[in-house]
Design brief:
805 residues, Phenylalanyl-tRNA Synthetase, Chain B, domain 1, 6 domains, 41 strands, 29% strand, aminoacyl-trna synthetase, phenylalanine-tRNA ligase activity, magnesium, cytoplasm
Length: 805
């Protein structure tokens, strides 16, 4: 089952859910997603063109020279060999440099002496399978809608920018073989009720029963069967939106009547068949078993010899369709058709399966009859299809459906106890949770003394017994949320948790660059506990502390490290580089019996000299960039450096307002770095000191995506750029501007020079960067690099008022 993400969005609000997230959620709730594909992916420079003039090529009997409007001032000349190209049509144009199917690159060139600036494409050349391309365009190029705007990308007009989700539907979940069924399923996952917007049926005051009679000889073969009559239709191609939806679902568009039946098949999961009423040969439909050796020609032109095992639709004398499998050639809808007999039915699944297997005819319709359809929407699907045919083909729907047999869909009621649900799943779910799950599924449930009476609508005909309900609760609650228990038997070797592995790696990295681990008391004074806070928090006090210095649980790690720095400074230690990993304790309220929230944090402190004076050089005091370098090295070791950003901050009163930055992982605030405020440093009796504190749990919880990239066999290119900017402009701002405009071939940006002093305007600084470019698929040209550098130069000048030196 191919599901259109755009189409699904018409019934549910999935604006905050990406196709990948949706696919992941569906997979873990019981419907496996085989893959997600966006047809426009890997295509570029494919635009709308308008053929203004088309003349024959002077040196060819099949080529044409076209003057095409591609949204520019001048027309573009393109040589095209399609037999259906002509002036006045909108077409698909691949510009020079475009990539089409097979990663083929389109180049400007000459064809038999005539310049061709690109290519006019067929659907096959932009990735469509031959099996879904409309027949009128199968041997030529595709015509686009008249309202397509020349120069715009073509993908939105063909819905190629849609995400197509391929579902692997198991036989027990045939309800998901329709867009409505999938909408209900996704609605249950995201707690939304689908909103459908079906075409309203308008009937004319002429009775359908005056045009046709319907008889079903055995209701077991066709428990439900009805015919609607639509007169005065005009057969024509379907509108582009309908063709797009069918092609994205893997179905070839035929015409506005047949396409509607296929559209409703996907929408409702209800197979329909349209007969040419005038070619039936009678005003009667009889559903019966075939006679021995009876012959019938199907739509594919093959003559079939039938057996009594086959159910057939007849005109009272001869077969006109194989029930649930394929229609007949003699009654198919053609361009001359003016009156439609629209069939909606429910056929015996076993009979359809045997007939399909006997003649090796597998179709979307037969698959659904074999697996089951929603008996409650047979008539509704027929009405919607009739209304759409009337709308798209200009027909008139006669009053009433002519019914040969009908089935009344009944809701199923299943009783189950909460104890039995929890017993099977190993959970402790409450009545409220289970009731909410049933409500999300659209089931009506009442509970009395722990016993549920659940009424299941006909659209979920797979649910009949207790076990079915337990499965529904489990998958909507989340299989990943079900408790797990260790297996009984021999003990096995344990392993580190993710938290433990991360902690060990952090220790290894920081100690590798010269920091020493400190371990501070978790108890401190209320004043120190309230310093360097991430978020506002109430202190957690001990009822009977041993001393006032150990009366409150710490809410930061930095105050403990500053005590350690003060201890070492008092003993004349000049090189101080500490880190600590430990829990801090936050409390949102002052409720006495409420336990605090524990968070694992990392803190660092540098003070004194980074390099001592010796015979090789002078002493070097620690500064902000020593500490930031240590953090950057840590983030790089944890594969997070590309997701980290720094922002200047003055919010933490214990930190220097001009030398402090907050740290963000993606969009999440995870910590801060900077110099301890001189007033705070004086209170601790310590010299100039730089500290940082980070929420380790936020790092552990952050989901990183690793994409394998092979080492390029093509050489990289480096270009340098020097610029003069105001001293308030940050390196991060400059790097972000460069990365935003330099293009996809930019692989690295490195600052290698900073200068302030003589020959530089006061309040400004000179910075120099090295930009590295690499194309994994080809050797970069000077033109490509120069274009990227020109864009960088322009953006730096416009946004940051930089002067390029």
């Amino acid at each position: 089952m191919l599901v259109s993400y755009k189409w699904l969005n018409e019934y549910l609000d999935l604006s905050s859910v990406s196709p990948k997230e949706l696919g992941d959620m569906m997979s873990i709730t019981g419907i496996e997603v085989e893959g997600i594909e966006t047809p426009a992916e890997n295509l570029k420079k494919i635009i709308v063109g308008e053929v203004i003039e088309c003349v024959d090529h002077p040196d060819s009997d099949h080529l044409h020279i076209c003057q095409v409007n591609i949204g520019e001032e001048e027309l573009s000349q393109i040589v095209c060999g399609a037999p259906n190209v002509k002036a006045g049509i909108k077409v698909i144009v691949a510009l020079p440099g475009a990539r089409i199917v097979g990663n083929t690159k389109i180049k400007k060139g000459k064809i038999r002496g005539e310049v061709s600036n690109g290519m006019i494409c067929s659907l096959a050349e932009i990735g469509y399978s031959d099996s879904v391309i409309p027949k009128e365009y199968s041997e030529g190029i595709q015509y686009l809608p008249a309202d397509a705007v020349p120069g715009e990308e073509v993908f939105s007009y063909l819905d190629m920018d849609d995400a197509i989700i391929e579902l692997s539907i198991t036989p027990n979940r045939a309800d998901a073989l329709s867009m409505r069924g999938v909408a209900y399923e996704v609605g249950a996952i995201y707690r939304q009720e689908p909103k459908f917007h079906d075409e309203a049926l308008v009937e004319v005051p002429r009775l359908a029963k005056d045009k046709i009679q319907v008889t079903v000889e055995d209701n077991q073969d066709a428990p439900a069967y009805q015919i609607r009559i639509i007169e005065n239709v005009k057969i024509a191609p379907s509108p582009q939106w309908l063709q797009n939806r069918l092609m994205n679902a893997g179905i070839r568009p035929i015409n506005n009547v047949v396409d509607v039946t296929n559209y409703v098949l996907i929408l409702f999961g209800q197979p329909l068949h349209a007969f040419d009423y005038d070619r039936l040969g009678s005003q009667e439909i009889v559903v019966r078993r075939a006679k021995a050796a009876e012959e019938f020609v199907t739509l594919d032109g093959e003559k079939r010899q039938l057996t009594p095992e086959n159910t057939v639709i007849t005109n009272g004398q001869v077969p006109v369709a194989l029930a649930g499998v394929m229609g007949g050639l003699d009654s198919e809808v053609t361009e001359e058709t003016t009156t439609i007999a629209l069939e909606a039915a429910l056929f015996d699944a076993l009979s359809v399966r045997r007939t399909s297997k006997q003649f090796n005819l597998r179709s979307e319709s037969s698959a659904r009859f074999e697996k089951g359809i929603n008996q409650a929407t047979i008539a509704q699907a027929c009405d919607v299809a009739a209304a759409m045919i009337a709308s798209l083909a200009g027909g008139e729907v006669l009053t009433g459906a002519v019914v040969g047999s009908e089935v009344t869909a009944q809701a199923v009621t299943v009783t189950i106890t909460l104890e039995r649900i929890n017993g099977y799943l190993g959970t402790t779910l409450t009545e409220e949770i289970v009731s909410e799950i049933f409500e999300a599924l659209g089931f009506t449930a009442t509970v009395s003394e722990g016993t549920y009476s659940v009424t299941v609508p006909p659209r979920r005909w797979d649910i009949q017994i207790e076990a079915d309900l337990i499965e529904e609760v489990a998958r909507i609650y989340g299989y990943n949320n079900l408790p797990s228990t260790l297996p009984s038997g021999e003990t096995i070797a344990g392993s580190l948790t993710k938290n433990q592995r991360m902690t060990r790696k952090i220790r290894s990295v920081l100690e590798g660059i010269g920091l020493s681990e400190a371990i501070s008391y978790a108890l401190t004074t209320e004043q120190k506990a309230s310093e360097f806070l991430f978020t506002p928090s109430h202190p957690t006090r001990l009822d009977w502390p041993m001393t006032e210095e150990r009366s409150v649980l710490r809410m930061n790690l930095i105050s403990g490290l500053l005590d350690d720095v003060a201890y070492n400074v008092a003993r004349k230690n000049q090189q101080l580089a500490f880190y600590e990993i430990g829990n801090v304790f936050h409390q949102a309220s002052e409720v006495k019996n409420e336990l605090p929230v524990e968070e694992n944090h990392l803190a660092l402190a540098l003070s004194g000299e980074w390099v001592q004076k010796d015979w090789q050089g002078k002493a070097e005091k620690v500064n902000y960039f020593h500490l930031k370098g240590a953090l950057d090295h840590l983030f790089e070791s944890l594969s997070l450096v590309d997701h980290i950003t720094y922002q200047a901050s003055t919010d933490i009163k214990e930190m220097h307002p001009g030398r402090t930055a907050t740290i963000y992982l993606g969009e999440q605030y995870i910590g801060f770095i900077g110099q301890v405020h001189p007033t705070t440093a004086k209170a601790y009796d310590i010299p100039e000191t730089y500290v940082a504190e980070i929420n380790v749990e936020a790092i552990i919880a952050y989901e990183k995506t690793f994409v394998y990239q092979p080492v390029s066999k093509f050489p990289s290119v480096s270009r340098d750029i020097a610029l003069l900017v105001e001293e308030t402009v940050t390196n991060q701002a400059i790097v972000q501007v460069i990365q935003a405009v330099a293009g996809k071939y930019l692989t690295d940006v490195t600052i290698f020079d900073v200068y302030q002093g003589e020959n530089i305007e006061k309040g400004h600084k000179s910075l120099a960067y090295s930009l590295t470019f690499a194309n994994p698929e080809a050797t970069l040209t000077d033109e490509e690099i120069n274009l990227a550098m020109d864009k960088v130069t322009k953006r730096l000048t416009d946004e940051l008022s930089a002067v390029i030196r």
